[in-house]
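Final report, Chapter 2: Outcomes

The project's central promise was a pipeline that accepts a single protein chain and returns its three-dimensional structure in a standardized token representation, suitable for archiving and comparison. That pipeline is now operational. To close this chapter, we reproduce one record exactly as it appears in the project archive, with the input sequence first and the structure output second.
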Amino acid sequence: MTDHDQLQRQLGDRYQLKRELGRGGMGAVFLARERALDRLVALKVLPPAFAADPSLRDRFLRESRTAASFSHPNIVPVYAVEEHDDVLAFAMGYVEGESLAERVRRSGPLTARDAVRLMHDVAYALAYAHGRGTVHRDIKPDNIMLDRATNRALVMDFGVARRSDVAPARDGLTRAGEIVGTPEYMSPEQASGDVIDGRSDVYSLGLVMWYALTGRTAMGGDSAPRILMRQLTETLPSIGTMRSDLPPALIDAVDRCLAKDPAARFADASALATALDDAELASPEIPLPIRLLSRELMLLSVALPFSVLLGAAMFARVVERQFQTIDPLVPAVVIVAVLLARLGLALGDAARLQRLGFDAATVDRGLRAEMDEAASAREAGRLDPELRRDRRASLRTAVVMLVIGVVSVVGAFALRDEVRPNEYRSGPLGLALLFNGLACCGVGFVLILRDPRRMPLAERLSRAFWLRRPGQWLLRRAMAREARRLSAATPSNPGAPRSGVRAASRSPAAGVTAASPATPDRLAALEHRVRALESWRSTLDAEQPDETR
């Protein structure tokens, strides 16, 4: 009988097992449906050593009940503890998503923005637990889940935590520590068997952030004793030496978490969360309208110079022929006209942002933040070994395509016949070889030039134009014209702001996070509605007898 079948027989009255989600040193995790409440849960079955040892069993049950009392949005809840003769398990909330370890293995190191959000969420979860006297003791990438819908980080496995006011015993509980803790993410004091507090989890979180930002384990080794020795003696270099794109405040936070001396770390996770808040690292979301404008401007940054060069080349050809024909100018004029129309539409989108309440400074910050996100993603990609392997495979493919392309073009030239000077005729085979050769060369050049770890040409040109005076002048001019139009169309109202941009700039929430602030017309209508409600309330008060007031 398999483990699945045996567990289904023992717990079948309460749970319907679906499938196994994972297996490790701390046992197996199954996806199950709780029959009574008809909900999905993650059922973690602990190793037989927990069920066989009475002292371990009692302590686990006691600490699991403590964890079950937790209620925090960044902690996977423990619903119930299942205790049978030879089975010890607990049911947790099922998170639709993946663990941090799976995310990094799938898509490489996190960007600075995602790393800040992760550290912030985990710090708040640990602060909640530390405030209730509980130390997790096994913070690691596999125990941090990322919700697929919200990208929120949730800490799991609080069911194997320890009260921080309980000293480690020498009657076998140290052995439990070895089982519960993961050497690669243990603090020095936990590795040496000393009394631990919340600062131990802070150290582990620092190692988790190192993994999240670099894609590799900081304290690895070929054996547990060797890893524990490294935890006790080896000091890691600053994370800033690995990632040059990280904000200084984030570098300082991670480095401080990794201090060997607990006194040099944050006092607890609450202090870490406060430091992240004070540094304002959790940058606000970039509104979708600004993101769309950024993509359009980036496209124009490449297309407009190309069209100008094409037009100049065609005009030079017409001049060379002494204006005997203007046919070469026709496609160039059409392309330039289309792109100028696109530019006008893009400036119209900027004016529409003015109507939504975004000012020019907010749009500029949003454009810069959009490009900074891309830069952070590239920096993370440089540390991703899988991305490096993919890049090498792309280069090999590019070389093959270029060779095929050159051979095809040479073959096409060899098959053509000269009809008159500088005019040739080619058969179907020659044309097929020519088109195939040009296509293969084009693909090869794209594969060589398109490196996800380097800034693309569109972004370079966009930074050089739209983030500097010429582009900023165009955007500000379009938005200022719209602001004047709105101001002229809005009736004077002393109680309402004159324009959406002024309303947004006065609001404390204004900035990149602004979405759709109320327009002056809506504010005026709202004030009229409030006055009507106040008048109606006064009428009701006047109609009520004095004794009911």
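Archive annotation: Residues 164-179, 494-519 have pLDDT under 50 and may be disordered.
This record, like all others produced under the grant, will remain available to the consortium after the project formally closes.
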